Description:
Strand order of the largest sheet: 1-3-2
Order of helices and strands: HHEEEHHHHHHHEEHEEE
Largest sheet: 3 strands, mixed
Strand content: 5-15%
Structural class: alpha/beta
Distance between the termini: 56 Å
Amino acid sequence: MENILWNVLSAHGLTDREIGRCIYRLQKEGSPYAEAKLQKDGSVVDGAYEVALNPYIRFANVFAPLLEDSAFCESQEGNLLFHGTAQLLSAVDRISGADRDTFVKRQMEDEIRGGCYGSKAADLMSTLTTLEKSALLDYLLQFYRGRGEPYPFIGAVLLLFPQSLVFREKQKPDVLYICLDTAENETQAARFETVKMLLLPMGTTVRLSWQQPFVLTDISELEQYGNTLV
């Protein structure tokens, strides 16, 4: 089974909470070749998004009893039944073709949300989009299966702070220099400290700057060719 419906939902940068509150409607206009379309420009009650679903491509048999009675399908009860069925199909879409890592990541997510890593980690997880959360869980998997390298931590920093500059000296591989290039505030500081707590290997030191870039002053490796320093 293809994951078209789930991919449409996750590709728009929604959180799990927003996806869970989506309202599914029968598609009445637009391309007959599009299975699902998220109406991001037309949010409905309390910020919930409406998803126009064309069931004829893959789910005609599932919706057949409902679609055959157009009057009932247009009623409030019919709309509710259509929404509930589509919601179940999106859940099936989500796990179809899943491998072992998918379930390991889901278990880690449940543990984080349940407070096993502290309240700040739980809060961070609830604010991430689906794609951000998946990437962060991927970095956690790499971290636990790795050899103490800081690459999962660096990846998570760049994920949450995309303007960051991260580097380390060859002579001091256990020291990371990070410029986040963003204004420091309580929310941003909590996000960074949470990522640091989750993914920074033991024995690794972080030298952090928020908006002031680092200045490299060690010129011992510079060589001069004519009037040029290399």
